């Protein structure tokens, strides 16, 4: 009979299986290392982007603080400018008022016809009210025509006219109101 030769293939199969397992573990570890490196690379990219964004935010915050300081300065400068303009307007107003009384009296001298005598002048924001005496109604009418042509006054309105005895002479006592025409005179008081 033949002697059969018996070969035990079990250790070879186990060795082949162990080699495949070892290769699978190496491939798995390699895949895990590659995945870890990819993850680390993506993490580094995102970290760099976050750091860059943080720097941009810090820069923008610095610029924002500087702009706020400059805006505060601009607001202060605008307030100072407005105050200076107000002072300039006040100075111009005072300069206009400085000659107001002289201008009003000069105009009244030129407008008053012979035969009219003025006793009081009162100013208001709307105009000037005068009281006086006239030798006749025609003199008061001439006075009103002169006022209508004036560069300083307009719209004369005769409020009261009455006969009055001044000494031994009969005269007409009158009250006349007129408006300001010139804006530099308007609204000024205190002659």
UniProtKB/TrEMBL annotation:
The keyword Transmembrane applies. Keywords: Membrane, Transmembrane, Transmembrane helix. InterPro entries: Extracell_DNA_Util/SecSys_Comp, PilN. It comes from the Bacteria. This is Pilus assembly protein PilN. The chain crosses the membrane at residues 24-43. GO terms for biological process: type IV pilus assembly; type IV pilus-dependent motility.
């Amino acid at each position: 009979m033949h002697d059969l030769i018996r070969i035990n293939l079990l250790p070879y199969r186990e060795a082949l299986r162990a080699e495949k397992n070892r290769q699978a573990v190496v491939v798995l570890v390699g895949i895990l290392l590659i995945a870890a490196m990819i993850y680390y690379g993506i993490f580094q990219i995102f970290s760099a982007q976050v750091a860059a964004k943080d720097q941009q935010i810090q820069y923008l915050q610095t610029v924002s603080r500087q702009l706020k300081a400059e805006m505060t300065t601009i607001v202060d400068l605008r307030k100072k400018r407005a105050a200076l303009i107000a002072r300039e307007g006040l100075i111009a107003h005072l300069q206009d008022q400085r000659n107001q009384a002289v201008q009003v009296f000069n105009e009244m001298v030129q407008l008053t016809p012979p035969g009219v005598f003025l006793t009081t002048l009162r100013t208001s924001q709307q105009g000037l009210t005068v009281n006086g005496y006239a030798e006749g109604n025609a003199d008061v009418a001439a006075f009103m025509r002169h006022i209508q042509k004036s560069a300083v006054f307009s719209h004369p309105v005769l409020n009261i006219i009455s006969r009055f005895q001044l000494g031994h002479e009969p005269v007409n006592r009158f009250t006349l109101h007129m408006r300001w025409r010139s804006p530099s005179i308007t609204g000024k008081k205190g002659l």
